[in-house]
Amino acid sequence: MIRFLEKPRSEDVFSPWVNAGILVLEPEVLSFIPEDVPYDFGREVLPSLLASGASVYGYRMTEGLWWADSPEDLERMRQSASAGRLSL
Q: Can you tell me the distance from the alpha carbon of 3 to that of 13, in angstroms, rounded to the nearest whole number?
């Protein structure tokens, strides 16, 4: 990966790919996170890793992606599961 931008504005989008929020990290990544302050992986940790020259890799999912960011999303997932349309 050479570039990462969390939740870009429409005019800043440079790729059709999105961050699914599942991370697997080496322990050394913890050194990029300051103690006792909130720190965001998408907006701070991953861009800092890239800026330092660290190797960052992604997995291009072909599986279905389901999310539940709201009560409406959760209900949609429940209905899909009940109808047998929810598959991973």
A: 11
Contact 48, 34 (CB under 8 A): no
DSSP letter for each residue of 11-50:
GG---S----S-----GGGGGGS-TTS---IIIIIHHHHH
Alpha-carbon gap, residue 6 to 40, rounded angstroms: 10
The tens digit of pLDDT for each residue in 1-59 reads 677 777 777 888 788 777 776 789 999 999 989 999 999 888 899 889 999 999 888 88
In the chain, where the domains are located? 1-57, 63-88
